[in-house]
Amino acid sequence: MNIFALSRTSLPALFIPVIFAPASFAAQNEQTMIVTAAPQVVSELDTPAAISVVNGEDVRHATPQVNLSETLGSVPGLQIQNRQNYAQDLQLSIRGFGSRSTYGVRGIRMYVDGIPATMPDGQGQTSNIDLTSVESIDILRGPFSALYGNASGGVVNVTTQTGKQPTEINAESYYGSFGSWRYNTKASGAVGDGTQAGDVDYAVSTSRFTTHGYRDHSGARKNLANAKLGVRIDDASKLTLIFNSVDIKANDPGGLTKDEWRDNPRQSPRADQYNTRKTVKQTQAGLRYERQLSAQDDLSVMMYAGERETTQYQSIPRAPQLNPQHAGGVIDLTRHYQGIDTRWTHRGELGVPVTLTGGLNYENMSEQRKGYENFVLAGSTPEYGRKGDLRRDERNLMWNVDPYLQTSWQLTQQLSLDAGVRYSSVWFDSNDHYVTAANGDDSGEASYHKWLPAGSLKYAVTDGWNLYAAAGRGFETPTINELSYRADGQSGLNFNLKPATNNTYELGSKTRVGNGLLTAAVFRTDTDNEIVTDTSSGGRTTYKNAGKTRRQGVELGLDQQFAGNWRAKVAWTYLDATYRSEVCGDGDCNGNRIPGIARNMGFASLGYVPESGWYAGADVRYMSDIAVDDENSATAPSWTVVGLNTGYKFIHNNWTMDLFGRVDNLFDRDYVGSVIVNESNGRYYEPAPGRNYGVGLSVAYRFE
To answer: How far, in Å, CA of 386 to CA of 391, rounded?
Structure first.
């Protein structure tokens, strides 16, 4: 959908850029963003797809500002869970896509300021998102935009703040249970109003987070920096430099069996033995050039490059590693990635008003992957948690080239059509440099190609009520990890693994209710060749295609502001996700639930949020039981938790101070926060903390 900007109906004067936006640049004052290159403005009400926008102020309101899971629970269709494990990232899925991931994010495209947080193979992460700098987070559910490829579930796009006058500095600190401590500083401002050549805007933020962790052996520390610098070149063009860096060191507590969880959810019986841990260092930079070629034409070019280094120690005993084909228990990984997305937008008429957006996207990634034994011998006794002999050495390349075209047609005053297509091509090449008599050459290559059409039809019943129908095709390639091993234990890549493709059909309604928005969507997604776990033993996981699966459900959402300073949010998701063909190796799983996916999710919150003075709020979250494996042999029980927050916001002249406190899991519920799908030893469960507390303070000064 060729959507230029999106407004929250509860804040009709504030236009928030959306992930579908073509090249544009803006001059922004305190209340309104004027998109000079795109005079049309389409509100969230008018967007013909299931999309939610979370404002940056909501992200920062009385929260620790550490994880996306703190605030995205209010989005229908989005299942986001904190593993309480900073070595493995959040567990995030949209309409059930991404639920198989044992770490990171799969099945969803993620962007931060236009730079993909998803690699070309489909593996993504949330660790580099600076919540203190977020302007908005846009969540598209379903494959309904031709502007993005290699994802089944949808898109999560994060936009950080752009500096504006006057200059402002901010210092924040948060302290919570389990020794959790975060502090950050932020500065933003502008020279000029952004309309004259030489005008500059800037926003810089740095933060540090440390925690002992809820569970044993789950401590972590994270340093994060984010910066955005914009320069107006002339009255028709702008250049923006984006920089981001993250440095993480985290222990890995691992999963628990059901008996271990019931006995002591805080324990980590294997982590201390193997000293399981992970370090991540990532630095990236991007350069965005935007130019208004004419009153009808815009050009945007986004270029970026980055490096990500990862070292991980796993809980793999010595015995499996004695197999000469085993890759060891230490992963040593260095990735270099870069890309360019060139996009042109034209607005005109072909009998009716029409907007065309065409572009070419290129991404590539080179990976140096090594594996080592996770022990050294002291006599005949292995000492785990130490890097031993080399067991794997390979260089992997992955790249894609995707042309795309998207159009928007205003057929009548009430009827509009959006249609687009993308041709996605992904190549993978592996060169094995660890070849022995007992470990053959695993080099090889694979490529995947798919046409990805998408379209929607919207009918405006009234000015405040829209109905729409949408259809689109999704495409999800195997990640490098999923291609790396064969289930028969032989050398070589898993060339039998095919990309998953899905077709999604959706009907929706969006209605303005007073100063709020009520949304409803009904959808069905049929997938061919869904990628699922095949075997998981000896520290090695292999994958296969599951044949056919079906996801169908209903999503309801309400965001309502009333009585001046009161705000309510309600979301409900029903998702029936099942296998429709044989997938289990030792039984019939046809009709079984896809593991890792809750059938029902609910969220409700009520808050009193004046611009200054006392404020308070409460929220309730519900999740039904979750199957942990393909056989549905066990489940993680359903749960309901309650959170409370209160604070005081003081504004005096140029000073703003915000002091708050919060309590989560108010009634000390014992529950499983997330599951490890198809864990071969039955260690599916990752416990969530009981009742926990936090306090925070923010102080800001504006130079006026």
So the answer is: 14
**By 3-state DSSP, what share of the chain in percent is helix, strand and coil, each rounded to 5?**
5, 55, 40
Query: Can you tell me the distance from the alpha carbon of 147 to that of 173, in angstroms, rounded to the nearest whole number?
Result: 38
Task: State pLDDT tens for residues 586-596.
Answer: 667 889 999 99
pLDDT score for 241: 98
What pTM value is reported for the model?
A: 0.92
DSSP 3: -
| E strand or H helix that includes residue 647 | strand 639-652
Confidence (pLDDT) at 39: 36
Distance in angstroms (rounded) separating the CA atoms of residues 507 and 455: 12
Confidence at 31, pLDDT banded by 50, 70, 90? very low
Mean pLDDT of the residues in the chain: 89
Distance CA 256, CA 34 (A): 52
Tokens at 444, concatenated = 């090889």
CB 598 within 8 A of CB 616: no
> Per DSSP, what are the bridge partners of residue 187?
169, 204
Whether the per-residue pLDDT at 650 is higher than 60: the answer is yes
Q: For the chain, what's the residue count? A: 704
**Separation of alpha carbons 460 and 174, rounded Å:** 46
Task: Report the distance separating Cα 313 and Cα 330, nearest Å.
Answer: 5
Q: What residue type is assigned to position 615 of the chain?
A: Y
Give the C-alpha separation, 69 to 158, whole Å. Answer: 14
Nearest CA among 593, 604, 692 for reference residue 640: 604
Look at the block and give the residue holding tokens 């785990």. 384
Q: CA 298, CA 290: separation in Å to the nearest integer?
A: 8
Residue whose C-alpha is closest to residue 279's, from 463, 545, 86, 485: 86
Greatest alpha-carbon span in the chain? 83
Nearest alpha carbon to residue 325 among 435, 209, 251, 199: 435
Q: For 249-273, what is the mean pLDDT?
A: 95
Q: Residue 5 gets which letter from DSSP?
A: -
Q: Which residue has the tokens 């959808």?
A: 523
Residue type, 686: E
Strand partners, 699: 171, 657
Sign of CA dihedral 210, 212, 215, 218: positive
- Rounded alpha-carbon distances, angstroms, from residue 344 to 47, 132, 407, 681: 21, 32, 12, 52
- Alpha-carbon distance of 75 to 92, in angstroms, equals 12
CB 397, CB 367: distance < 8 Å: yes
Can you spell out the DSSP letters for 244-265? EEEEEEEE----B-HHHHHH-T
Exposed e or buried b per residue across 199-209, where buried means at least 16 C-beta atoms within 10 angstroms of its C-beta: bebbbbbbbeb
Q: What's phi and psi for 321, nearest 5 deg?
A: -75, -15
The SS3 of residue 119 is coil
Q: Is 593 exposed, middle or buried (0-12, 13-18, 19+ CB in 10 A)?
A: buried
- Which amino acid makes up residue 254? G
What amino acid occupies position 609?
V
| Residues β-bridged to residue 244 | 226, 284
- Write out the E strands in 373-389: 375-378, 381-384
